[in-house]
């Protein structure tokens, strides 16, 4: 009878849990970024549908250029372009640089040159090539791989080598 009770108790016992799997490194954290020109393109969404068309961008760039070209010269010097970049891209040094935009190298940025460069950026961002840039297409997602190394140029435990 004791043997039967021991058999019943063994059968009723819950099976042992599998050994715990040690946690691995997991997925690295990601950083979402928006380049300044993409931020402007997103802001050019005139009908507020979350999508910017090429026509909306064209109109927006024209208005932004006119807001800086107050003397109506039809072109901006590099300082004027820096003023445009600060107002519309968020920083005077944001890309595209005036050297990229000034295709004829006359040290002046025309509306046409700016339109061509912004259209080029629009086409690059339009990943599905449907003629529309969405907020998702404006994002750049970069995985950040954790590292135990000290940042370049800084050493732990003493002065930098000479």
TrEMBL record:
MF-aspect GO terms: calcium ion binding
Entry-linked InterPro entries: EF-hand-dom_pair, EF_hand_dom
Start and end residues of each EF-hand domain: 113-148
Coiled coil: none
Gene3D superfamilies, alphabetized: EF-hand
The keyword Signal is assigned to this record: yes
Signal peptide: 1-16
Protein keywords: Signal
One Pfam family in the UniProt entry: EF-hand_5
Protein name in the entry: EF-hand domain-containing protein
Source organism of the structure: Sphingomonas lycopersici
């Amino acid at each position: 009878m004791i043997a039967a009770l021991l058999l019943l108790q063994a059968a009723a016992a819950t099976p042992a849990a599998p050994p715990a799997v040690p946690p691995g490194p997991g997925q690295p954290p990601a950083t979402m970024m928006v380049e300044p020109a993409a931020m402007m393109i997103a802001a050019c969404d005139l009908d507020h549908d979350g999508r910017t068309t090429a026509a909306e961008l064209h109109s927006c760039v024209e208005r932004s250029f006119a807001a800086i070209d107050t003397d109506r010269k039809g072109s901006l010097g590099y300082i004027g372009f820096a003023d445009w970049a600060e107002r519309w891209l968020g920083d005077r040094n944001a890309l595209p640089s005036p050297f990229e935009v000034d295709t004829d190298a006359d040290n002046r940025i025309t509306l046409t040159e700016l339109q061509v460069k912004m259209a080029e950026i629009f086409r690059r961002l339009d990943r599905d090539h449907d003629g529309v840039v969405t907020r998702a297409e404006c994002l750049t997602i970069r995985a950040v791989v954790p590292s135990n190394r000290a940042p370049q140029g800084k050493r732990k435990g003493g002065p930098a080598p000479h």
